[in-house]
Amino acid sequence: DHRLYKMVDGKINYLVDNNKCGKNSPEANSMYRQLCYNEKINKVAVYGLHPVARIIASFVIGLDPKGKQRFFKTEEQARLWLDE
Predict the structure, then answer these.
(1) 3-state class (DSSP) for residue 71
(2) Which of 1, 7, 19, 71 has the most crowded Cβ, counting Cβ within 10 A?
(3) What is the pLDDT of residues 2-51, one digit of tens each?
(4) What CA–CA distance (Å, rounded) separates 20 from 13?
């Protein structure tokens, strides 16, 4: 459901904290994939992944045709990229 997108003018940036995140549900994985293709989404910065999860996530980035998603070790790194 994308009701939020209709409430915001312009492009949207997401900052996602995965520090306390467990395994993603199939619904969450589907949502992340949809973010790649939604024209309202500018960037998605995800931080706090376990090092092994970041390696796996790097393969997911390859599935993002527009390069909207990136994974970071820290919130500071993620915010810097969103502000570029």
Answers:
(1) strand
(2) 71
(3) 677 778 888 999 898 988 877 767 787 777 777 777 888 899 898 887 77
(4) 21
Q: Does residue 63 have a pLDDT over 70?
A: no
| Residue written as token pair 């994985």 | 29
CB of 48 within 8 A of CB of 21? yes
What secondary structure does DSSP assign to 8-56, as a single string? S-S-EEEEEE-TT--SPPHHHHHHHHHHHH-TTEEEEEEE---HHHHHH
Rg (the chain; Cα; Å): 13
Q: Which two tokens stand for residue 62?
A: 């390859």
SS3 70: strand
